Amino acid sequence: MANIDRLVNVSIELGTTAIAGQSFSDLLILGKHSVATGRVMVVTDADQVLDLGIPTTDPIYAAVSAAFSQSSHISRVHIGKIKASEYSVIVPNADGKTFKVNLAWIDDKGEAQAGVAEHVFATSESASATELLNKIKALNAPVTASSAGETITIKPTGEADIAITVSKDLTLKATYTETVTEALSACARENNDWYGLAITSRVEDDVLQAAAYAEANQKLFGTASNSTAVINSAVDTDIASKLLQNSYFRSFAMYSHKADTQYPEVALMSYCFTFYPGAETWANKKLSGVAFSPLTETQYIAAKKKNVTTFERFNGSFSITQGGKVAGGEWIDIIRFRDWLKQEVQINVTSVLINTYGKVPYTDPGIELIGTAIRKALDLGVVRGGIAPVELNEDNKEIPSYVITLPRSSGISDNTKAQRVLEDVKFSARLAGAIHLANIKGNLAYSL
């Protein structure tokens, strides 16, 4: 049979390549645990943390609970792991008890492996770490194991990542030497689908490392402190002052007198991340599951000067956040909206470059294709509430939402065209902003 291609040869190129973007509503909580291999776990409710073996007394559970306790909250939370350098299993007196050490690991082929070292002690048998030690070695897990007295020491070999849990009569202790920076880098290599960042630690060096990481990696970091130095204007050595002094525009601090056990910054991120970037403000927000802090006006002013967000009680009837700025002084919502808009412009323009049939010509119509892609992102920014809509001035003349400037092909040098790089594309947009308070003046008289 003759091939119809001899008469009509049709070739159809697909211009439908989708470009994945980063979510601006996903949150990672970094903490210490040993219940699972891998650097990042994803949970969709707080009970799943308990199911993993993390107790209610663990800071990870407290932080995840804060995220899911809000009236409107994000749908999932990423849990990042700081990896332990070694584990100690303490074997107590064991009169007729059964001891178990559960190990899990990823083998050289990338496959999950697991094993249980178990020893049942006779009623009259005294406890010995030797029996358990031998059975741990028999698992052939990527660890070295040794014992001294009643303590078994287990160390991952090389870069091996293991999970370890023990039966209730054993005591498990972990030693950590990995820094926050190292842990966050490892988490991002495995799963970088998160934008918000919180850590369970309140140690100043850990907080400063997380803030520096967020600044260098386009994340948004939140922390909290219960130090009264934060709400003392005479002190400039507290964590909030140090974040401010470093002009961090991707980190925000909250004051909470319960910060050692509660995570108001996680609660605030979880609530605000339910809004599209540009549609929210981080001030005047009601939070659930965290305590408000009773501050004097002097303490509030001190916090405000350090760009610290507070959660306070008003009129004895409602509690809301005050502040809503990053340490560097910009509003948190503006930083998040800027990050979103940057990505949206990048995705739209890239889509034009790779999905336009044949090529984007270096002509006025080709340049306009780039302009249209930018305009599409800015229009969505108006819809989302980050960019102000078209408005009228005092003379009833329109004030545009944004202005895009595109060069004419005729004004571009031959050398620039030969490099196939389009330059001098600019836009300026009016931020919609937000109203946090209102100053109202009134007058009462017998006549107007």
List descriptors:
22% strand; 19 strands; eight-stranded mixed β-sheet; alpha/beta; four-stranded antiparallel β-sheet; 448 residues; 3 domains
**Termini gap:** 96 Å
Structural class estimated from helices and strands: alpha/beta
Main β-sheet: number of strands, strand sense, barrel status? Answer: 8 strands, mixed
What gyration radius follows from the Cα positions, in whole Å? Answer: 29 Å
Element-level helix/strand string:
EEHHEEEEHEEEEHEHEHEHHEEHHEEEHE
Helix content: 25-40%
How many runs of DSSP E, i.e. beta strands? Answer: 19
Quote the beta fraction.
15-25%
Mean pLDDT rating:
92
Question: How many structurally independent domains?
Answer: 3
DSSP helical segment count: 11
Dominant shape: flat
Structure, described:
This protein has 3 domains: 27-82 and 179-330, no CATH class; 86-175; 335-429, no CATH class. The model has no long low-confidence stretch (mean pLDDT 92). β12 (220-225), α6 (239-245) and β13 (251-255) form a beta-alpha-beta unit. An 8-stranded mixed beta sheet has the order 2-3-1-11-12-13-14-15, sandwiched between helices. Strands 7-8-4-10 form a 4-stranded antiparallel beta sheet, covered by helices on one side. A 3-stranded antiparallel beta sheet has the order 6-5-9, with helices on one face. With 448 residues, the protein is of the alpha/beta class. α2 (59-68) runs parallel beside α7 (264-272) and α9 (332-355) runs antiparallel to α10. 34% of the residues are buried. It has helices at residues 47-51, 59-68, 129-137, 180-190, 204-216, 239-245, 264-272, 297-305, 332-355, 364-384, 414-419; strands at residues 27-32, 40-43, 77-82, 86-90, 98-106, 112-120, 143-148, 151-156, 162-166, 171-175, 196-199, 220-225, 251-255, 308-314, 318-322, 391-392, 398-399, 402-405, 426-429. It starts with 26 loop residues before the first strand and ends in a 19-residue tail after the last strand.
